[in-house]
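Module 6 notes. Inverse folding takes a fixed backbone as the condition and produces residue identities as the prediction. Think of it as a translation problem where the source language is geometry and the target language is the twenty amino acids. Below is one complete input and output pair. Work through it position by position during the lab.
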C-alpha cells in the first residue's frame, strides 16, 4: 500500500485501498459511454514468443470498456505478420496490426523520407509514431494509453488505473504517467531510473542552476516507465524521439505544450517486472549503455533548447558531480534493500554507475560533435501540412494489410 504524498507540481494518484478490479471496471464502463479509449502496443515479433505477451493479450481480452487496440509490429516478415494476426485474433475489441516492415507502410515511409519527414532509424519511437498516426486517422478515441509488451506481471487493472484520470468526466488532465516499484526476484531493479536519471537530474541542477523543467522531471516517481496515457489530440503536436530517449522526450514535449497541473502520475502496480537489459550488448554498445547514452542526449538537447550553455568543460564538471551523487544514492538503496530483506550486489551497482558516468561524457561529446542532428520525429501537424492525405493513406494501408491483402 502506498503513501498519499503530494508535492504540488505533479498530481500523484496512489493505490490506497486495493480497490477491486471489478469495481474499477464498472466505473470505467460508465466513463466509456462518453469517453472512448484506445491502447497502443509497440511490439517486436520476438515478444510474441516471449513469456509476457500471451498473458497480456489474455488480460486485455477481458477488458470490456476499451474501444480500440493498435499493435505496432516490428521486425516481422510476411509469415510472421500472418502469425501475429492469428495471435491477436482472440482480442474481442476492434484491433489492427501495423506491419511496419510490410511493403505498404515501407512505401509510405520512403515518400516521407524524400521530404525529410521520415522517422529515420527503426525503433520504439518510430513504431509508436506510426501507431499514433493510425489512431489519429481512425478517430475512434478521446484518449489513448501506451504500454510495453514485455510486462511479466501484467494485470488488466493496470490499464484501467492508467486511463482513469483522463476518462473521469470531472478531471481535466491531458497526460498521465504510470509508476510502480521495481522489485523482483528478491532485489531492486530499475538501475537506469535509480542510478542514472535521479542522480543526474540533481547533478544538472547543481551544475547549471535551478530549472523548472528539471524540477518537473524530478516530480515523476518513475520517469522511464513505458506506461503512459494522453488525450488523443495531444498526438497531433507531440514530437517523439526515435531512440531510447522516448519516455524522457514525451515528458519534455508535454512540459512544453501543457501546464504542469494538466499532468498526473498514477500508481498502477504493487508488483511489476519486465524484460531486463544487460549493461551492454555483445558488441559493447547495446543494452543499458545505449539506453543511458540516448537518455542523457535527450536531456541535453532539451536543456539546450531552453538556452542552457552546454560546453565540454561543463560536461566534465557534470560527470564528477553526477558520480558522487550516484554513489551516495546507491548507498541509500543499499540501506533500503537491507531493511526490506532484499539482496544487494554492490559490485554490479557500482559497475552500472561507472558505465553511466562514461555515458554522460560520451553523450556530451556526441551532442557537441553533431549539433545539427535532428533529434525528433516531426509532429503529425507538420507531416499533414506537407502530405494532407497521409493519415488516410496510413489508415488504408493498415486496413488492406489486416484484411488479408498481403
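Target side of the pair, the amino acids:
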Amino acid at each position: 500500500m502506498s503513501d498519499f504524498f503530494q508535492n504540488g507540481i505533479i498530481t500523484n494518484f496512489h493505490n490506497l485501498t486495493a480497490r477491486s478490479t471489478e469495481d474499477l471496471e464498472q466505473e470505467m464502463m460508465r466513463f466509456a459511454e462518453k469517453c472512448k479509449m484506445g491502447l497502443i502496443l509497440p511490439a517486436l515479433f520476438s515478444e510474441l514468443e516471449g513469456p509476457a505477451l500471451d498473458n497480456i493479450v489474455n488480460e486485455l481480452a477481458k477488458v470490456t470498456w476499451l474501444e480500440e487496440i493498435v499493435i505496432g509490429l516490428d521486425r516481422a516478415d510476411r509469415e510472421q505478420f500472418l502469425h501475429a494476426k492469428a495471435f491477436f485474433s482472440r482480442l474481442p475489441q476492434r484491433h489492427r496490426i501495423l506491419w511496419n516492415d510490410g511493403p505498404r507502410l515501407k512505401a509510405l515511409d520512403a515518400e516521407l523520407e524524400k521530404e525529410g519527414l521520415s522517422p529515420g532509424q527503426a525503433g520504439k519511437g518510430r513504431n509508436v509514431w506510426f501507431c499514433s498516426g493510425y489512431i489519429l486517422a481512425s478517430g475512434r478515441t478521446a484518449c489513448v494509453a501506451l504500454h510495453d509488451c514485455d510486462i511479466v506481471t501484467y494485470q488488466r487493472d493496470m490499464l484501467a488505473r492508467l486511463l482513469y484520470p483522463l476518462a473521469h468526466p470531472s478531471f481535466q488532465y491531458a497526460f498521465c504517467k504510470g509508476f510502480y516499484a521495481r522489485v523482483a526476484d528478491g532485489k531492486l531493479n530499475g538501475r537506469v531510473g535509480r542510478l542514472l536519471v535521479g542522480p543526474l537530474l540533481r547533478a544538472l541542477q547543481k551544475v547549471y542552476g535551478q530549472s523548472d523543467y528539471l524540477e518537473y522531471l524530478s516530480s515523476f516517481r518513475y520517469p522511464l516507465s513505458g506506461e503512459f496515457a494522453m488525450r488523443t489530440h495531444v498526438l497531433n503536436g507531440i514530437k517523439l524521439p526515435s531512440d531510447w530517449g522516448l519516455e524522457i522526450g514525451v515528458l519534455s514535449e508535454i512540459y512544453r505544450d501543457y501546464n504542469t497541473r494538466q499532468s498526473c502520475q498514477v500508481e498502477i502496480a504493487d508488483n511489476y517486472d519486465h524484460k531486463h537489459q544487460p549493461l551492454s550488448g555483445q558488441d559493447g554498445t547495446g543494452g543499458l549503455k545505449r539506453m543511458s547514452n540516448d537518455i542523457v542526449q535527450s536531456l541535453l538537447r532539451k536543456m539546450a533548447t531552453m538556452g542552457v550553455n552546454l560546453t565540454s568543460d561543463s560536461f566534465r564538471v557534470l560527470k564528477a558531480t553526477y558520480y558522487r551523487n550516484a554513489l551516495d544514492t546507491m548507498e541509500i538503496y543499499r540501506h533500503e534493500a537491507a531493511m526490506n530483506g532484499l539482496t544487494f550486489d554492490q559490485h554490479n551497482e557500482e559497475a552500472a554507475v561507472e558505465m553511466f558516468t562514461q555515458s554522460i561524457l560520451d553523450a556530451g561529446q556526441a551532442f557537441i560533435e553533431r549539433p545539427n542532428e535532428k533529434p525528433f520525429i516531426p509532429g503529425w501537424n507538420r507531416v499533414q501540412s506537407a502530405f494532407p492525405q497521409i493519415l488516410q493513406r496510413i489508415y488504408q494501408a493498415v486496413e488492406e494489410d489486416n484484411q488479408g491483402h498481403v
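Reference fact for the lab report: The first strand starts at residue 11 and ends at 13.
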